Amino acid sequence: MRLKIRHSALTLACLSPLLCMSPAxxxxxxxxxxxxxxxxxxxxxxxxxxxxxxxxxxxxxxxxVEDLGGGLKATFRLSTRFDxxxxxxxxxxxxxxxxxxxxxxxxxxxxxxxxxxxxxxxxANDWEFDPWSNNNRVASPxxxxxxxxxxxxxxxxxxxxxxxxxxxxxxxxxxxFGGFTAHLSASTERTEAPGRDGRGYSASLNYAQDAxxxxxxxxxxxxxxxxxxxxxxxxxxxxxxxxxxDHSRMADHGDKSRAATLGxxxxxxxxxxxxxxxxxxxxxxKNHFVSLGADYALSKRTTLYASLGHQRYEHEGSRTAxxxxxxxxx
Length: 330
What we know:
Blueprint lengths: L2 E6 H5 L15 E16 L5 E4 L4 E12 L2 E11 L18 E8 L2 E9 L21 H5 L7 E5 L2 E3 L2 E9 L6 E8 L13 E9 L2 E9 L5 E11 L2 E11 L6 E13 L2 E12 L2 E13 L4 E12 L3 E13 L1
Antiparallel strand pairs: 1-2, 2-3, 2-4, 2-20, 4-5, 5-6, 6-7, 7-10, 8-9, 10-11, 11-12, 12-13, 13-14, 14-15, 15-16, 16-17, 17-18, 18-19, 19-20
C-alpha cells in the first residue's frame, strides 16, 4: 500500500508564508506518493561470510503527478536505496544519494518522457523474466549473469561503474499498441571512461497480453560495450515459466559473456515456490547457477522468505549461499 497525499496547490502553498503570497498556485492540484520496499535478513554469502542486512534491495521513493489539463500531466520521482542492516545509503561514497532515480517529466497520449537519472530501457524492464525480479543476492541467476560486461557507464558513480542507470538522460515509454510497448533511453553526456568517447543508449520492445509476455532489448554504453537481451514468460493458473538469453561484450578487451537462464514460480495459497537455473559462458569458461526459494505472504505487503543459491565456476570451484528474510512494501 502506498501513502498518497492529494491536495490543492493552495494547501501546499500555505505550508510556506512565501508561497501563500502567490495566488496563481491556487488553481492547480497534484498527487504525491510516498512508497518503498524494506528488506532485511540473515544470510551466508557466496564468500562464506555470515551477514545481517539487505538480501533484496531496500528503497524509499517520493513520486508525484500534476494534472495540467488536456490529457497532459507533469511527473517527478525521487528514489534512494539503502541497507537495512546499518541504515547507510547503498554503496555510500560511490553512488549518489538519489541513486535509484531522480527525474521530472511529462505524460500524455504520446506516452511518457522523463529527464534526469533513471534505469535504462534495458534494465528497467528485464526484472519480469527472473523469479526473484533480478533483486536477490542469494538466489537470483539474473543478479550474477545478466549484462555482466555491460555497465550502463564505466565510471559514472564517482569513478566506479554503474550497472543499470543513466545520468543526464532522456527516457521515453510509448503507449501500448496491440500488447507492444517501446522504451528508449539515451545519455546526453559523453563518458569519461577510458576507451571510446561516446554516449550511451538503450532500447527495449516489450510484449504483454493474456498469459504471454516477452522482451527484446539492445544497449550500448559510451565506451562501446554492447548487450543484447531476449526473454519470454508464460503464465498458466498459479504457475509461470520464464527464460532469457543475454549476450554482453566489452569493446576494448574483447571479453564476452553469454548467459541463458530459466525460472519458474508456483503459488500454493500464501506460499510461492521459486526455482532458477543459469548457465554462463564467460569467454571460454563455463559457469553454472542453481537456486531455490519460497515466499510466504503474511499479507499483501509483508512477506517472509527463504533463499538458496549454488554457484559452480570452472576455475574457482563451487560455493553455496543461503538466507532467510522479511520484506515489507508500502
